[in-house]
Structures are given as structure tokens and as C-alpha cells.
Amino acid sequence: MNIRNSDLDLRVRWGKKEIKQYAFSFISLFFLLILIYANSFDCSWHFDDYANIVENSNVQIKTFSWQSVQKGLYGIGGVDRWQRPLSYFSFAVNYYFGGLNVFGYHLVNFIIHYIASIFLFLFIYNTLRLPVLEGRYERNAYSIALLSAVFWAIHPIQATAVTYIVQRMASMAAMFYMMAMYFYLKGRTGDKTWKRVTFFVLAVFSAVLSVGSKENAAMLPVSLFLFELFLIQGITIENIRKNWKLCLLSLLLVPAIGLVYYDFSSISGEYEHRPFSMMGRVLTQPRVILFYISLLLYPVTSRLMLIHDMEISTSLFAPWTTLAAMVVILLILVSAVSISRRRPLVSYCIIFFFLNHLIEGSVFSLGLVYEHRNYLPSMLFFVPLSMLIINGLHYFVTRRRMFVILSSAVTAIIIILGVTVSIQNNILKNEISLWSDNAGKTPRLDIVHNNLGAALLRIGRLPEAFAELTKALESSPLGDINAKFKTYQLLGDYYLVMGDNDKALVFIDKALDVLSSKAGLYNNKAAILIAKKMPEEAETMMQRAISSEQGKAIFHVNLGKIFLYRGYPDKAIKEAQKAILMDGDYLESYLLLSGAFKAKKDYRTAGHFGRLASASKMTKRQCP
Fold it and tell me: What is the CATH number of domain 516-624?
């Protein structure tokens, strides 16, 4: 591929060598990634997976009608605008073809990660050969691009964005983000008008898809403008003056894109349930960003986890590292700007990292620290390091011992990174392994003990579950001051299973003080009230459950059981019919219908539904 520069009209021609190199890169990246992520395809659902997919009826579509698809675009119910529509649509497609079988979701996540790696390689490779770099990296462009892509793709910090299913939102946004940047670059270097137009159209289309996947893609216009200024035109006073309107437009596009998703007037109100203020979050984020950099440079398993314990900054000097972190970041950015004319690519890579952390590291009421937030910002992080390594290998090529030592060190690093990813996948294998690991690393956080307790409760390890839930009540709140009420809910479940209805009712009522919209609490309370022979109060609770979460068939079955208990078989029949229309639990619905018709002394119809219930029970037993 030969590149010529005539003002800003860049032209590219292909050669056979590049095609072979591309093929080798694509194949080697695939086999490397499949090797280290092979143990991720059966990892279970975790944390936000439940609200966004497992318990989200909006994405659980059974037909490809516009009505069902459009419902999925709104993400989680109760919101009057689209939420990351492309990400939720992808979950809906997964559900349509495979239900809640995790394999299909992991397969799509893996494909997204692989495609993102390919486009990252293509973008870096073509960037290294731009005329503004004066042929400085052209000789080693292929090696630098491939090594950078490998380091990024197999880095353990990406595991949560790949193996943690719901974080497809982050990986999909980054994939389209990098596609948009690559297509823009190809458009600027096209040798024919139709090619340039085609690539620019693809760039715009990819940008829209990126924004449709997650909000942090809103920084794409700024990234493209800086790429144009740093690496296409070159940084000069004249070019800065010439492009000030384009700069202003790119900056205005960021909040404009944000308005598609977000009501900015609600920012302050969203901090009401947080244990930190907006100012506290903003002050903490510089320390978080430096922590991310340390993870990228030193990603050992003991430092990697889903939920991190980060002390909240309450002032510039509490803790003292707050101001220190701000100074360090400022010095890094000033250094990046100061070398922008001599080392524009290095400068751009540094600015790209901080720029793409800006949205999730600013005033929005989000959790403080999550590793998946590095998926997009870290895409160019390893380019300077790879340039240093490749230049070192070339320097020592005639000094065999040093060459062998350096190349062996690089190989060892790649192996260690891959093994660490495999270890992280094993940690993410199931809820017990995930939260046990996290609780061991962050023992003072309530949320990890709460989630571990919930997981233990689900599999019947009751004493251990109770111990973890007790720790959760005694621990510090991380991201939600109402988290203890979720612990009350779980303790209510625990005592319900243990048969202690009085204690269960105490904790359920405590949880309802704040979590009044939780239909499951009303359902559980109704079961206790029935056991206490208080059917009228139980009916009230079930009506609230149905009102709180419509469309759940089992709630109608339970309400029907209460009606049958109270001697209203006709009402019970209506509730059973509603449950069947919702495609709910046929076994429970048929049993309810059988009991209701028996109460009406219609034994023939009761027997008919009894046989249907037996058939439904047999079918369930035969299902794998």
C-alpha cells in the first residue's frame, strides 16, 4: 500500500503483501481469543444481567413483529425513551433464538470482541502509515499494530466487558466506535471519489450504531476531530485557526447526542440514593482513572474484580491522593499537548484515553469504579508501548542475547495475560465463585455480601446465606444507601424458607418501607398472610403485586388460589385463564382450574384439567 500526500487529499493503493498480512492477523487474533475465552461460554448470569435480560420482559420477544421489537428498544420498562436500543435489540434477538441459554449470548459477545480487535488492528495499521507521521513508523507499522491489538484484546481488564453478558453494551459501542474511526480514515485516504463517499457513509452509519449501543459513544465527534487535527492535517497554528468551527461543532454534538438518552435536569436528583455527592464523585474520579492505568499496567488477578472498594474523596485533601491524582493527570495531559507536534500519535493515544473516560468519569450518578469502562478508552493505550517494544527488538536484532531476552519477555507477558483472562472467566463461572472472590477482596462492602448471600440462598445453603446477609447489614454501603432494604428482602426470603413466618413478615415490612414497588415482596407477604389465615389481607397484597409488575402469570395463579381459598371459584378460574393467556406456568394454572371446577362440583371438567396438569408435569420432567 503506497500513500501519497497532496495537501489533504490522501490516496491509498493496495498490495498483495497487505492482504497476506491482514489474513494472518485475522486468523491469529481469532485463535488467540478463542483459546483464552474458551471457558467463558458457559458462565452464568450475573448482577445487572437479571434486571436487563433475565427478568426483563421487554427483550424476551417471541416474534419479530414491530410491536415486540419496539418494546425491546425501550430497554427496561417504565422509561418513556429508548435506552441503548441496539444493545437491547441484540439481547432480544438472542432471546428469540435461544431463550435464556447463556451460550448464545456469550457467542455474540465473543464475536463482538473479535470484530472490535480486527478493526482496532486495521485502524492502528493504517494510522501508522499516514503522511503526517513522515514514514517514522511505516517500516514497523504491521508489527506495532498487531502487537497493540493483541495486548488490548487479551488484556484481563476486558474480561468483564466480554464474559459479563450485559456489558455487551460497552463492547458493542466500542466496536462500532472503532469501525467509525477506521471508515473515516479510509474515507480520508480513498483514491477515488466513490470510495471516499462510501467510507464516509459507513463511518456515519457506524457512529449511529455506536451511539445506539451506549451513551459514552457521544465522544466520537471529538475523537474524530482530534484525529483529523493531529494525524491528518497536523497540528499547526494555521490548522487550529482553520478548524475552530469544526471543533465547536464536535463539542456541541456531545451534549446533543446526550439529549437523546438523558434528562440532564435529573442529574442532581439521582444522587439522593447514593452514599456520595456529585462533588464527591467528581473529586474521586481522578484517583479512579489512575487506578485504571495501574490495572492496565499491572493486571494481576488479586486486583481484578467486579465491584471495587474505592474510598470517596470528600475534599481536595481527604484523602491526600485526591489532589495528587489531579496534578498527575494534569501533568500527563500537558505533556501530551507539548509533544503533539513532535510525537502526534503518542499525544493522540494519551488524549484518547482520558477523553473517552470523560462521560463515565464526570457528574453523572453512576457507580464509582468498573473495569468494563476501560474497554473503549484503552483501545489505543498499548500503541506507545508496542512502538517501544518493536523498536527495541529492531535495535537488538544484531545482539542475539538481548533480542532473545526481550522477545521472550513479550511472549511471557502475552501468555500471562491470556492465563489471567482464563482465571477471570473461571471466577465469573457462577454466582458463588464470583461473589466469593469479590467478598474475599472487598470484605467491607455490603453489596458483595448481599449478592453472595442471595446466591447461597438460591441453592439452599441457608446457614452460609444467613451469615453473608448478616455481614451485609453490618457493612458499608457502596453505591446505594437503600441497599440494606434489599438485604431485608433477602432475610425475609430466608425466614420464609425456614418456616419462621413472623420474622419473615418483619423483614418484608422493613423492605417495603423503601422497596414498595417490589412485586415479589407483596407476593411473599400474601403467602404468609394465607398461612396466618388472613385471606382478605393476602388478596390485597396480591393485587398490589399484580399492579406493581403486570404480565407475570404466577401472580395471577396465586391470586386465583386466594380466591379459591375464600370460596370464589369463578374468580379463581378467571385468574387461571389470565395466566394461561400470558403463556405462564401451565402446570400451576391447570392445577388451579382443576381445583376451581372441583369446588363447583364440575368433576368432569376438573378431571380434564387434572389430566392436563399431569401431562404438563411429565413434559417438564422430560425437558433437559
Answer: 1.25.40.10
